[in-house]
Amino acid sequence: MTTTDSDRILDTLTKGIEALTTSDAWRVHLEVQSRFHSYSFSNALLIVAQDQGATRVAGFATWKKLGRAVRKGERAIWILAPMIGKRTRSEDGEERRSIVGFRSVPVFDVAQTEGEPLPEVCRTLRGDDPTAWFDRLTACAQSMGYSVLSTELPGATNGDCTFALKRIRVESRNEPAQQVKTLAHELAHALLHEDIDDRPLVELEAESTAYMVCRTLGFDTGDYSFGYVACWAGGGPEAVARIKASGARIQRAAAVILDALEEVDQATAPEAAA
Question: Exposed e or buried b for every residue in 204-234, given b needs 16+ CB within 10 A?
Answer without folding.
Answer: bbbbbbbbbbbbbbebebbbbbbbbbbbbbb
